[in-house]
Amino acid sequence: MAHVLAEGGDLPGSVAALQASLRAHPERQRQGRLHANAVLAKRQFALGHLDAGCATWSAFLDDYLTLSTARGDEHFATLRGQLRAHSRVRAVRQLAGRAREVAALKGSTVR
Questions:
Q1: Which of 28, 38, 55, 111 qualifies as a FRET site for 98, CA 20 to 30 Å off?
Q2: Vertex 102, ends 44 and 41: CA angle to 5°?
Q3: What is 39-102 written as a DSSP string?
Q4: CA 35, CA 49: separation in Å to the nearest integer?
Q5: Cα–Cα distance between 63 and 35 in angstroms, integer?
Q6: Quick one: pLDDT at residue 7?
Q7: Distance (Å, rounded) from C-alpha 24 to C-alpha 7?
Q8: Whole-angstrom Cα distance, residue 44 to residue 99?
Q9: CATH of domain 2-109
Q10: Residue 96 and residue 76: Cα distance in Å, rounded?
Q11: What pLDDT is attached to residue 22?
């Protein structure tokens, strides 16, 4: 549903659908949550909701630390690109510091 809404140009509806999906997401399905949080954060940034996007990217990083997936690495690269584009925002700078820490902890698995 969230993808259909986004493709139709309804980013706020897509964000709401992703948030509802994440609330219903089983705790043990970390890989799905990892992807959903990344998509949600990207859309929050696209809407200019940087504080919410940073909080969502932070939740992504919580799972990313313990998972090793190619799609997770792609999302991590997107996260770093979004952070560079908004480096003047305090929440973004704080998240950038955390992202650097995660990259150091993950070592060579992060592109």
A1: 28
A2: 10
A3: HHHHHHHHTT-HHHHHHHHHHHHHHHTT---HHHHHHHHHHHHHHHHTTTSHHHHHHHHHHHHH
A4: 19
A5: 10
A6: 84
A7: 23
A8: 18
A9: 1.25.40
A10: 11
A11: 93
Q: Delimit the domains of the chain by residue range.
A: 2-109
Long-range pairs, 102-106, Cβ under 8 A, ≥24: 102/61, 102/64, 102/65, 102/76, 103/76, 105/65, 106/64, 106/65, 106/68
62 closest CA partner among 44, 83, 76, 82: 76
Residue-wise pLDDT for 44-83, tens only, equals 999 999 999 999 999 999 999 999 899 999 999 999 999 9
Kind plus residue range of the DSSP H or E element containing 35:
helix 30-46
pLDDT at 92 over 60: yes
